[in-house]
Automatic annotation (TrEMBL):
Keywords for this protein: Glycosyltransferase, Transferase
Taxonomy of the source species: Bacteria, Bacillati, Actinomycetota, Actinomycetes, Pseudonocardiales
Name of the protein in its database record: UDP:flavonoid glycosyltransferase YjiC (YdhE family)
InterPro entries in the record: EryCIII-like_C, EryCIII-like_N, Glycosyltransferase_28, UDP_glucos_trans, UDP_glycos_trans_CS
Stretches assigned to the Erythromycin biosynthesis protein CIII-like C-terminal domain: 230-369
Entry similarity comment: Belongs to the glycosyltransferase 28 family.
Pfam family, one: EryCIII-like_N
Coiled coil segments of this chain: none
Residues in Erythromycin biosynthesis protein CIII-like N-terminal domain copies: 95-150
GO biological processes: antibiotic biosynthetic process
UniProt keyword Glycosyltransferase, yes or no: yes
Molecular function in Gene Ontology: hexosyltransferase activity; UDP-glycosyltransferase activity
């Protein structure tokens, strides 16, 4: 079979799909990724076929601002998100995507939940499609806004929107919303921290006697001036700290004997020996930590982060600090509580065990290939 994955070029949207893509490839299927050229460095080293459009998310954000006057950087809202992913992204790249996918001839298309280019391609080619979700349910107002915006894009192309045949869900049930029902039959998939199939040099110092905190705000959030005081407060509480960087290391004014600053390294490597994670609450980062049984201090920064924070607290797997609550001292105190509170540590361990029991990528690849072969 020929399996085409489709997603925006955002790391947090693409990386959760990699384990399933690798599983399909290991089972002898041809695997491709339809995404933005900004994701070249993620897809090409994996040896998947890359079908890259020139549109970037920055282009879609700018186009949305021109079309609607909504600045999603300063004021995120459902209508703005809908125009970015279901409007501007489709307008800017659907035609080249259709041409490339038509030449590639997929037998199955797997698209992430915020991607609307893949479903347009599937409708045009008559290809069965599965939706891939990388976190707890999306609020109904976002789904409704996206459905409304994308409807005219189908009509303009003379296409009829086809609902997905499966909903591939990496969110463990205890972290999701129990009353919600997905738009297609749910297929659970075990989430994994991002890893690379090739050799990755060890870039994190061996753990010492102190507890280790991992501070990771993903690939979009996390300014040096925001994180430096927070890191100092953690060091003052006698923790060693690993920090993932979105800025030049020189901008961090921290004790380099106690703090390791890391460029983009697979999260699987960074999580080794970690006792607590301080994070923005991105879905992939959150589920990766929980897959290792690492409890969390979540400081939501925007996007879907508040949902992850809410569900982490609901599962007794961590603490959330919102807005002005998240002072450096408060964050450090929360980290110490997470390290010492038996209820929180037990909650994280329960989610870890739940994740371990979910179907593996190979299990899900086998189920999906049996369904459509």
């Amino acid at each position: 079979m020929r399996i085409l994955f489709s997603g925006t070029g955002i790391h947090g949207h693409l990386l959760p799909m990699m384990p399933l893509a690798r599983a399909f490839a290991a089972r002898g299927h041809a695997v491709g990724f339809l995404t933005s050229s900004q994701a070249t460095d993620l897809v090409k080293p994996e040896a998947f076929d890359l079908l890259a459009t020139e549109m970037t998310i920055a282009d879609a954000v700018a186009d949305t601002l021109r079309a609607t006057g909504i600045d999603m950087i300063d004021k995120p809202e459902p209508r703005g998100a809908a125009y970015i992913f279901a409007g501007s992204a489709v307008d800017l790249s659907a035609e080249p995507a259709l041409a490339m996918a038509g030449d590639w001839r997929p037998d199955l298309l797997v698209h992430e939940i915020s991607d609307h280019i893949g479903p347009v391609v599937a409708a045009a080619l008559g290809t069965p499609a599965a939706m891939f979700a990388y976190g707890p349910r999306r609020p109904d107002e976002y789904t409704a806004a996206m459905d409304e915006v994308v409807a005219s894009r189908y009509a303009d192309r003379g296409l009829i929107r086809v609902p997905p045949l499966r909903y591939v869900d990496i969110c463990p049930p205890s972290v999701n919303y129990p009353e919600w029902r997905p738009p297609a039959p749910r297929q659970l998939l075990r989430p994994e921290a991002y890893r690379q199939p090739w050799s990755q040099p060890q870039t994190v110092p061996a753990k010492g006697d102190r507890p280790r905190a991992l501070v990771s705000f993903g690939t979009v959030f996390g300014r040096a001036e925001q994180l430096s005081p927070l890191v100092d407060a953690l060091v003052e509480r006698d923790l060693d700290v690993v920090v993932t960087l979105n800025a030049d290391a020189d901008r961090f004014d921290v004790d380099r004997t106690r703090v390791h600053l890391s460029r983009f390294v697979p999260l699987e490597t960074l999580l080794v020996g970690v006792d607590v994670m301080v994070t923005h609450g991105g879905a992939g980062t959150t589920l990766a930590a929980l897959a290792h049984g690492v409890p969390l201090v979540v400081l939501p920064q925007g996007a879907d982060h508040p949902r992850q924070a809410e569900r982490v607290v609901n599962a007794d797997a961590g603490i959330a600090l919102v807005g002005d609550e998240a002072t450096p001292d408060a964050v450090a105190a929360a980290a110490i509580r997470v390290l010492t509170d038996p209820v929180i540590r037990a909650g994280a361990a329960l989610v870890r065990d739940e994740i371990a029991a979910m179907p593996s990528p190979d299990d899900v690849a086998r189920i999906l290939e049996t369904t459509w072969s």
